[in-house]
C-alpha cells in the first residue's frame, strides 16, 4: 500500500468518481490512476469503487470505510510535512481558506493584504462557496480554514473560533417611504417586498426567526448569495434590501440609504473553523490574530486542547467580540 494510492482514491471520490478530472487536477494520466486503484484493491482484496464497464458508479461499503481512514492518513502525512516546514522555514508555505462572498468581499481584503505583506513567501488560496460547502471542505481537510456564519456548527470534527459579531441593515433607494419612518418595526418592514440572502447564507436564519417570532410572513421576492447582487436589484426597484451591515459601502453605495435595524434582528457571529488535530504553523496563528485580535495564540492552543464545543464555549465566555 502506497500513500500515492490513498491520495488517488481520495481524489477520485472527491471528483464525483471522474477519473479523467482527477487526473487533470493531479497532473497525471488517467490510466495511471486506474492502474494504481486496481493494484490497491487487489492488495486489499475488496473493491473500493463499484464499476459498470470502465466507469466507476459508486463507492462500496468497504470503500466508504477505507476512504475515511485514507483521509485521516493523508491529513497526518500533510501534518508531518507542515511540522518539517515550520522548523526548516517558518516564513514560507501555503494557506488555504474557504469563505463566503460577503467575507471575501467586505472583511478579508485588508487583512489578507497586510498578511501577504508580512508573509510574501506564503501562497494564499481562497475558495468561495455555500456555508455547508465551506464547512465540509474544512472538515475534510481540503482547506486550512473555513470562515462563515452558518453551518460550521454542524460538523463535530471542527474547532470553532468566534471572530466578530455583526448585524443587518436595510438598504433602500433615496426617497423610499421607509426613510420617513422614525422608528422602524418588523410590521413596517413586512409591508414591503424584500430582497435578501438565500436561506443558509449570511445569517439568513436569524432574519427568518425574527419575523416568525412576531407571527409575520415576509414577502421575499428575490434572493441571492451575493450582497452586491442584492443591492443591484434594490436599485432596480424590486424591493427593500436586507443585507449584512458590513456589506454597505458608504462610497460605492451612496445612492442607497442605509437604515439601522439592530433593534429588529438578533446579531450573528462569524467564526473561523479548522479540523481538530490540525497542526497550525506560525503564520496561521498570525492570520487568525489579524482577523480576530482577541484570538491570541494562547487562546487558540487552549481551544485545541478542549475536547467538546461546551468546553470551548466556556473558554470564550469572557471574551467580548468586536462588532462590525
The share of residues in extended strands comes to 15-25%
Distinct helical segment count: 12
Which stretches of 5+ consecutive residues score pLDDT under 50? Answer: none
Distance between the termini: 51 Å
> How would you sum up the major sheet?
5 strands, mixed
The coarse silhouette is globular
On the 0 to 100 scale, the average pLDDT is 89
Radius of gyration: 23 Å
| Structure classification | alpha/beta
Tell how many strands the DSSP assignment holds: 12
Portion in helices: 40-55%
Q: Could you state the oligomeric state of the chains shown?
A: single chain
Give the H and E element order: HHHEEHEHEHEEEHEHEHEEEHHH
The strand line-up of the biggest sheet is 4-3-5-12-6
What does it look like?
The chain is of the alpha/beta class. About 45% of the residues lie in helices and about 20% in strands. The protein contains 12 helices and 12 strands. The chain has helices at about 5-15, 20-25, 30-45, 60-90, 100-120, 130-140, 185-190, 205-215, 225-235, 280-290, 295-305, 310-315, and strands spanning about 50, 55-60, 95-100, 120-130, 145-150, 160-165, 170-175, 195, 220-225, 240-245, 255-260, 270-275. The chain has a 5-stranded mixed sheet, with helices on both faces. Helix 8 (about 205-215) links the parallel strand 8 (about 195) and strand 9 (about 220-225). Helix 5 (about 100-120) packs across helix 10. It is globular, with a radius of gyration of 23 Å. It starts with a helix and ends in an 8-residue tail after the last helix. About 30% of the residues are buried. The model has no long low-confidence stretch (mean pLDDT about 90).
Amino acid at each position: 500500500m502506497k500513500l500515492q494510492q490513498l491520495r488517488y482514491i481520495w481524489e477520485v471520490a472527491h471528483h464525483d468518481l471522474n477519473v479523467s478530472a482527477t487526473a487533470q487536477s493531479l497532473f497525471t494520466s488517467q490510466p495511471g490512476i486506474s492502474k494504481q486503484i486496481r493494484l490497491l484493491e487487489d492488495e486489499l482484496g475488496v473493491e473500493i469503487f463499484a464499476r459498470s464497464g470502465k466507469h466507476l458508479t459508486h463507492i462500496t461499503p468497504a470503500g466508504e470505510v477505507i476512504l475515511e481512514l485514507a483521509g485521516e492518513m493523508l491529513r497526518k502525512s500533510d501534518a508531518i510535512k507542515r511540522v518539517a516546514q515550520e522548523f526548516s522555514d517558518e516564513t514560507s508555505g501555503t494557506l488555504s481558506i474557504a469563505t463566503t462572498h460577503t467575507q471575501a468581499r467586505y472583511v478579508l481584503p485588508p487583512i489578507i493584504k497586510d498578511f501577504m505583506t508580512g508573509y510574501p513567501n506564503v501562497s494564499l488560496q481562497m475558495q468561495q462557496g455555500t456555508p455547508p460547502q465551506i464547512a465540509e471542505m474544512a472538515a475534510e481537510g481540503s482547506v486550512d480554514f473555513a470562515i462563515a456564519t452558518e453551518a460550521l456548527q454542524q460538523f463535530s470534527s471542527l474547532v470553532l473560533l468566534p471572530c466578530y459579531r455583526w448585524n443587518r441593515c436595510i438598504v433602500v433607494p433615496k426617497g423610499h417611504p421607509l426613510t420617513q419612518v422614525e422608528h422602524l418595526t418588523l410590521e413596517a418592514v413586512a409591508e414591503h417586498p424584500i430582497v435578501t440572502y438565500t436561506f443558509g447564507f449570511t445569517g439568513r436564519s436569524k432574519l427568518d426567526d425574527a419575523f416568525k417570532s412576531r407571527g409575520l410572513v415576509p414577502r421575499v421576492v428575490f434572493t441571492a448569495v451575493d450582497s452586491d447582487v442584492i443591492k443591484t436589484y434594490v436599485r432596480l426597484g424590486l424591493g427593500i434590501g436586507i443585507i449584512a451591515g458590513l456589506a454597505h459601502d458608504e462610497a460605492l453605495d451612496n445612492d442607497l440609504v442605509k437604515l439601522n435595524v439592530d433593534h429588529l434582528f438578533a446579531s450573528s457571529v462569524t467564526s473561523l473553523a479548522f479540523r481538530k488535530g490540525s497542526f497550525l504553523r506560525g503564520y496561521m496563528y498570525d492570520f487568525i490574530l489579524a482577523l480576530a485580535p482577541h484570538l491570541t495564540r494562547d487562546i487558540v492552543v487552549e481551544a485545541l486542547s478542549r475536547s467538546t464545543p461546551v468546553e470551548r464555549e466556556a473558554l470564550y465566555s469572557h471574551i467580548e467580540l468586536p462588532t462590525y
